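Hello again,

I reread your note about wanting to compare the complex against the isolated chains. To keep things tidy I'm splitting this into two emails, and this first one only covers the full assembly. Below are the input lines as submitted, including protein chains and any nucleic acid or small-molecule components. They are followed by the predicted structure of everything together. The single-chain runs will come separately.
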Amino acid sequence: MPIFLVGLNHTTAPVEVRERVVFTPDQSRTALTTLLERGLLREDVILSTCNRSEIYGLAEGDTSPLEEIRNFVCEFHHISPATLNGCFYQQAQEEAVRHLFRVASSLDSQVVGEPHILGQVRNAFVLALENKSTGIVLNRLFQKAVEVGKRVRAETEIGSRPVSLSSVAVETAAKIFGKLEGRAVLVLGAGEMSELTVESLSLHGVKNFVVANRSLDRAQELAAKFKGTAIPWEKLDEALLPPDIIISSTSSPDFVITKAHLERLMSARKHRPLFFIDIALPRDIDPRVQEIYNVYLYNLDDLKSIAENNRAEREKDIPKADKIVDEEVRHFTRWLEGLAAVPTVTSLRKKVEQIRTAELETHLRKLGPMGERERNIIDALTQSIVNKILHEPTIRLKRTADESERQDHAKALRYLFDLDKEEW
Amino acid sequence: MYIILSWIAILSYLITEVLYGLNLLERKPAFAKLASRFLVLSMAIHFGAMLARSRQFRVVPYNDLYGSLSLFAWMVAIIYLALEFRHRQKSVGAFLLPIPVILLILATLLNRTERYTPPAELRGALFAYHVTSNIFAYSAFTVSFILSAMYLLQHHQIRIRRSGLLFSRLPSLELLERMNRTSVAIGVPVLVCGILLGSLWARKLHVHWALDPKLVWSLITLLVYAGYLFLEKQGTWKGKRSAIISVCGFLIIIFSYSVVNLFFSSFHKFY
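Full-complex prediction:
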């Protein structure tokens, strides 16, 4: 009964394909149940995000029904198999476990270290659990996967540094101003990049947004989105006084704010710190404004190079993360192999127990009438002998790490104790 | 007895430091909470050590090197604790705690065991308050120095656009500035009291205290930090420049503690 997975992700399938194989929660439930009803699988979980759709299963027989699962996906989403040709990847046993652990640790993500995948793995598992489509193996697998994901985040730098331009800008702002709640932000130009940065700031508790744009309509549109206010471009000078952070992304060919201009304003601002995020090309803010006391300026290149650095830093920790994953995969496979020994152990114990009770009966009868206490002692004596004898072989069988070696041991046990006769 | 207590206090401070460090690296609030508790415990043990020593030798802690260093360490710790409480921020602990730890280790290693009886003029309540408040003020300025150094470091990181480990672990400029202001605001009035008490006490002893170079340097120190508080309110001096003033103030303190004490002052030759 191997663990296996069939799936596709951002590296194997373009977005046009991926969006067609997404499983909504409802679709997941239906698919999970259908697959189980077909009798191919014992347990299954579907992990579906915008970057990946993966079906994890525990096969009923000795081989993984990979072909059937692929066909099922095509059939379920009404896609011709030809479209999905070459998009699927599949893994079994240890490699499937490793894949899931790497996914949960965000090592397989488009942006390594992105934090959402861990929650998505957890949600996929909870959905399958509630749908009663998991059992002892996948339950343990997914619980472990979440643990591994947490461990990797805690023990490596993989998720600790911002790698998107807007989050770099927000992190820097937070290092200047401390808590961002209550800070005032002025947005010059209402482009897409400004919007992303405003969104990040708003997630960090900033509420006071003022948007100035050459076209007031667009300014109002952006302002409305974040409950800010829009002002006409002509009123810019007054608007420069209150803010702590100024995001600029106008399409102006010249500097919108020059050093001389700002210098005049700074004393009216009482020289409070001011952070410029200049994401315009060509630049909006005269780089010489940095020479003014308490003025900080990051332009697009600064943000990009920091983001690049951070990305490189994250990637430096991938080997460390993989080491953790390897370690956890080893633990899990050992557990799984121990589990495989369980049927042999169970039938061995069953057989010995049968012998014990039969012999006990016979000999008690021969002994003739005796008190309850004596009876119990003899019963306990036989039980204790049986347990002591069986303890060592049980442990040894479960602990044998090598798969083929363990199978040999199990086979020998089955032959020597003639276990197979009554089992099947 | 007090030596054992001192080492226990050192150990406890070290555990506290490790906890603050873990809080910084792992960003787990549970560590920070535990760290603060350990800090209070360490300070209690430390206080016990000072008390035990005073009982044993019948001296106040500041009559010799062990005593004054130990008291200094304790006061740095209590000022940090006050800052942590006031600003509800535990990210500075890991940077500040090494100071009391090092001071207390030094004090314990340099400890003299023979009994020491201070001369008559170095006794009395007035003298005690004078010394205690001065040490307290200097502890506050030491804390301010560390915060300023952290400010300058972080400011530099932001200017050169480095987002490395330092940048991500050092607190924000705004917090450092705020904490800095608080510690100087504690130090200045206490130093004023200390100097006044010292003058009163000297007058009682009929010493020509007005000529003492130590007093002159204390007044210069006071001037620098009062200047810090005054200029800090002005926008043009808020931030980096204030931090530099605080660093300068600390250098003056070091100078007045070492050079002036040893070579110039007639009666400020306590350690």
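For quick reference: Chain A is about 55% helix and 15% strand.

B.
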